[in-house]
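Session log. Operator J.P. requested a structure for one protein chain; no other inputs attached. Running the standard single-chain path with token output.
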Amino acid sequence: MQTCPPGRRLDNQLRVDLYTSMQTNLKPLDRRQNTAAQAYAQLRAWIISGELRPGQVISEPKMAMTFGVSRTPIREVFKRLQDEQLLDIFPQQGTVVSPIDIALVRSNQFIRETLELRTIALAATLADVQDIAGLHAQMEAQKQLVREGNHRRFFAADDHFHETLIGIAGQPAVWKTIEDAKAQIDRVRHLSLEDPDWLRRIYTEHLAITDAIACHDAAEAVVAMQSHLHTVYVAIDKIALAHPHFLKKDQRTESPAF
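Structure written below.
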């Protein structure tokens, strides 16, 4: 029987701690709303943020207990996340958080880069004094988050920065397209931002983009943004060295042991 590679197995105590921690930090579901939709949003957020690590085994009945619902909506949630390539379901065995698919990251990154390089050039041309002041205020807020080492709030600030730039370009709807395409990219971003040095690097790159916008230098803004977006590939290399089992390998044939 195929087995899981070293480091992928969870012992019973770790499984207990996992569900206890999730249940403790989980906001109760609103029973007046669709509970499956709420469970989906929360479980998806845990996967993308890295709170549930790639390769981590999760249990349908225990997840149902965690959310305080029956197994039927959780089964629906698992199937939906499988369709998004965020969960791998092994019939009669169990379910694991999908490893990060580098091919999907590259495809998502192609979409994001195509859209953001076009909009950053527009933003550099269209930004007014108020826009530039707002970007500088965001840089000050990001600097404080870097000092605190608060990678979760920095992640949100990072997204807000990019959304703001797209808004300055006069194309706010483009951000929704990017959001829909970047789930796999966000998994890489969350893992990389756990490193304080990476926080500083991303902040410095944001400063370079802001400076180019402030100078209305469209060409430099495009160069700075392209360099910034390409850091996702550097992040993948770092993850591959530190946690190779977090990444999907085409040649890997083993399935997890449950």
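Operator note: The chain has two domains: 12-98, 102-242.
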